[in-house]
Amino acid sequence: MSMRFPTATWPQTRKVLSRHLREVPKATQQFLFAIVLLALGAVANIWIPIQLGHIVDVVISASSTSLLRITAELVIAAFAAAAFSAWGFFVLSRLTERVIANLREDMVGTALGLPVHRVEDAGSGDLVSRSTDDVAELSAAVTETVPILANSGFAIITTAIALVTLDWQFLLVIVAAAPIYVIAARRYLRVAPGRYAAERASMADRARRVLEAIRGRATVRAFGMEKSMHDRIHTASWDVVEHGYSARKTMFVLQLWMTSVEFVMLGAGLLVGYLTVQSGAMTVGAVTGAMLMLIRLRGPLMGLMRVLDTIQSGYASLARIAGVVVNPPQPTKPAGAPPKEGHVEVHDVSFSYGQGWAVEDVSLSIDPGKTVAVVGASGAGKTTVAALLAGLRVPDSGTVKVDGVEVTSLSDSERVARLAMVSQEVHVFSGTLREDLSLAQPEATDDEMIAVLDRVNADWFHQLADGLDTVVGAQGLQLEPVAAQQLALARVMLLNPRVVVMDEATAEAGSQGAQSLQDAAEELAKDRAALVVAHRLDQASRADEILVMDNGRVVERGTHAQLLEFDGRYQQLWTAWQRGRQ
C-alpha cells in the first residue's frame, strides 16, 4: 500500500519558511527594504489622482495656477511610482526565489537521504509530482503573484489612508465595503484550501497511476490487466477534472462577491462626495480625485482576486513540498553490522502490492562467491524478489538478511558497503566519464577507473580521444545501451560490494556486444554473492543454483542439469529458449 509523504499544516509550513528565510543572508533587511520601496511607490501612485483633481479645480475656478507645474508633478509622480515599485519588486522577487531554491534543494536532499524503501513505499509518482509539478507551481505562483500582491496590497492601504486624509467621512466607504469583503474572504478561505489541496493530491495520484502503468507494463501485459489499469488512470484523471472544477467554482463565487464590494464602494463614494461638496467641506476637484482613487482600486481589487486562485494553488504546492522536509522519517541509524562478507538469507518472504501476493513464501540463501539465478515468465515475481533483497521493499512477512542483519535495518553506509543493484534501466549522468565513475568511489584513481572499464570489456573507451575527460550523458556523448550498461557495471565494481543484485542487467545482450556484456556481468559476480534475475536462460544455466518462479512462488530449484532431468517448468522454458534461438 502506498504511504504518501504528508502535507504540512500552516504552522509547519510557516516554520519551514522561517528557517529558510534565516538561511538567506540579510533576509530581514532585504524584506524591510523591499517593503519601504513598495510603500514609496504606492504613495507616489496615489499622488496621481490627487493632482488630476487639482486640474479640475483649476479649470472650474479659472485659477492662474500653472497647469504646467501640475503636469510636471504628474510626470514626476508617475516615474517615481514606476521606479520605486520596480525596485521593490526586484528585491522581493530575488529574495523569494532564493527561498524557493533552498526549499527545493532541501526537499530533494531530504528525499535522497531517506531509506530507499521509505521512498518506494511513498510511491515514486508522489515524490516526482512534488519535486516537479509542485515546485513549478510554487515558482510560477511566486513569479506571478508577488508583484501583483504587493502592488494591490499597498494600493488598497495607501488609498484608504489618502481618502480618510481628504475627509473623515470617507470612512463610510470603508465601513460599507469592508464587511462584505471580509465575509467573502472568510467564505472563500473556509473552502478553498481544502479544494486546492485535493486538486494537487489528485494530480499526484494521477502521476502515480501513470508511472505504475508505464513501469509495470510487462506485468500488466502478462496478467492481461490493460483494461483495469486504463480504468484506474481514467478514474484518477477524472478526479483531477472534478477537483479542478470544484476549485474554479469557488473562484467564480468569490468574483461575484467582489463585484458586490465594488458596487457598494463606488455607491458610497458618490454619496459621500455629494454630501461633502454640498457642505463645502471639499471641492469638486478633491472629490473627483477621491472618486478616481476608488475607481483605480478596481484594478488592485480584481488583481488581488485573480491571484487568490494562484496563491491557493501555490500554497497547496508549498504545503506538499514542506511536508517532505518538515518532519521527515529519520534515516536509518547504523545497525552495528559485522564486517562485510556477503552472506544472504531470505526466509519465508511474502510481499503484496495491495492486490494478492506478488511473492509468497520465498526462501533462498547465497554464500560469497555463489550465484543464484531467478527465472520465470513475466509477472512471476522475479523483480519483486530482487527489490526485496536490495532493500527497495519491506516484506510483509519473513526476513531478508545480509550478513545476519535485516537489509532494511542497515544504514545507508552499511548497505552501500555490502549491497548494490544493477537493473536493465541504467542512467548515464551528465558530466565527464571520470565524474560519472567517481560517483561510486570518489577516491578512485584514473588507473583504477580504467581497470574496471577493461574488466567489463568496455573496449569503446580506448577509442575516445579525451579518455576519462570525455563528456557523456545528455550534454555529451550519447552511449549505446550496451556501453551504458557496461558503465553501470564498472561503477558497481568500483563500489566493490559483497552482494550484487542484477535485475535483467544483461537484457541488452540481444544486441551487438552480447557476449562481452554477459562476460562483464559474470566478472562482476566473481567472489561475490550474486542474485541474477535472468533474461537469458544461457546466463542462468551457469549459475550455482536456479530458482524457477511462477505466480509469486518458487516452483522448482536446483542446478541447470538437475532441473533439466526433472523435466518440469524449467525444462519447458529451456526448450522454448533453445527453439527461439534457432
UniProtKB/TrEMBL annotation:
ABC transporter domain span:
344-576
Give yes or no: UniProt keyword Plastid. Answer: no
Instruction: Please give the start and end residues of each transmembrane region.
Output: 31-50, 70-92, 146-164, 170-189, 252-274, 280-297
This protein's source sits in the domain of life called Bacteria
Single Gene Ontology MF annotation: ATP hydrolysis activity
Gene3D superfamilies in the record, alphabetically? ABC transporter type 1, transmembrane domain, P-loop containing nucleotide triphosphate hydrolases
Q: Which PROSITE patterns match?
A: ABC_TM1F (PS50929), ABC_TRANSPORTER_2 (PS50893)
* Localization in the cell: Cell membrane
**CDD domains tied to this protein:** ABC_6TM_exporters
InterPro entries, from UniProt? AAA+_ATPase, ABC1_TM_dom, ABC1_TM_sf, ABC_transporter-like_ATP-bd, P-loop_NTPase, Type_1_exporter
Pfam families named among the record's database cross-references: ABC_membrane, ABC_tran
- Show which residues constitute the signal peptide: none
- Domain (ABC transmembrane type-1): residue spans on this chain: 32-313
Q: What is the membrane topology here?
A: Multi-pass membrane protein
**Any one Gene Ontology cellular component term annotated for this protein:** plasma membrane
- What keywords are assigned to this protein? ATP-binding, Cell inner membrane, Cell membrane, Membrane, Nucleotide-binding, Transmembrane, Transmembrane helix, Transport
Q: What is this protein called?
A: Multidrug ABC transporter ATP-binding protein
Natural source organism: Corynebacterium stationis
